[in-house]
Amino acid sequence: MVAVPNIKLNSGAEMPQVGFGLWKVDNPVAADTVYNAIKAGYRLFDGACDYGNEVECGQGVARAIAEGIVKREELFIVSKLWNTFHDAERVEPIVKKQLADWGIDYFDLYIVHFPVALEWVDPAVRYPPGWHVDGKDKVSRSKATIQETWGAMEGLVKSGLAKNIGVSNFQAQLLYDLLRHATIPPATLQIEHHPYLVQEELIRLAKHEGIAVTAYSSFGSASFDVFGMKQSVGLTPLLENPTIKSIAEKHGKEPSQILLRWATQRGLAVIPKTTRENVMALNLDCTSFDLSEEEIATISGLDKGLRFNQPPNYFPTEMLWIFG
């Protein structure tokens, strides 16, 4: 089994540097996928309310524990607070629901999914609630502030429902705003990060503040092609990029491993996803070799400032307020 290094968080906890992302893992295969990933050596699983598969992912975990493959304390399970639950009184109840869905007593890390507060949707009416309050096309904001939401997140740590808390899709100004009032600083910042979107200054800021960075969408547009985004038109996919392929050939590795090593060698955590067991093993084995400093710089030089995961890319113009 591949040895995966850990990243020490500002809470003192240790988090596996290579984990398994659960976005777009279809419900019918989610339990088997998680089970197989545990057998392959993955210990960190990155889920979310919005992914709609937490029950099935929990079934995969339960099966692996029941068979003695892993103990609960050996796993690092991550989930996220969806936008419709930012009001302080909504945070703890939804976390308890998500924990029940997973079949566990606590999250190792619980993250604010987006810095976006939307009107509450009763889980009994629709779950996951998505972006629209009516389930169709109406977007309605909540007045919950980041300070209010983060205070409730800190309450999760005090009550033992989450061992660590963090944020996702926050930029520098929002991080600084949060840090002004936080009594428990975010342990992690999860961001879209790949050679077409390097975000070096944001990463430097997070590291300066002692916040670990987790990269998602390490393979660029691969997860977003289904949305038909205009950014992908005429763009060479990262897995087919000649620079990446050349470096991969030099090291006798797959392009995916090069992309993951480029991130992990620079101190970031990664959460690639696949349902193919042979690819699971390849992705997990992305820290057993090193790139040269020149290769890292060359890959970073591919930066286009090209962001795929922002709602204006696949929602109506009425939602442009979300990201400015």
Number of E-state strands: 10
- Spans of at least 5 consecutive residues with low confidence: 320-324
* Overall spatial form: globular
User: What is the alpha-carbon Rg in Å?
Assistant: 19 Å
Main β sheet profile: 8 strands, parallel
CATH architecture grouping: Alpha-Beta Barrel
The main sheet orders its strands as: 3-4-5-6-7-8-9-10
- Find the CATH superfamily: NADP-dependent oxidoreductase domain
Helix content: 25-40%
Estimated structural class: alpha/beta
Distance between the termini: 45 Å
Helix and strand succession? EEEHEHEHEHEHEHEHHEHH
As for the number of domains, it is 1
CATH class: Alpha Beta
Q: What does this protein structure show overall?
A:
The protein has helices at 27-40, 54-66, 88-102, 146-159, 172-181, 200-208, 242-251, 255-264, 277-284, 293-300, and strands at 6-8, 14-16, 20-21, 44-46, 76-81, 109-112, 165-168, 188-192, 212-216, 269-270. With 324 residues, it is α/β, with parallel strands linked by helices. It has a single domain, classed as TIM Barrel (Alpha-Beta Barrel). The longest helix has 15 residues, at 88-102. The model is unreliable at 320-324 (pLDDT under 50). Substrate binds at residue 113.
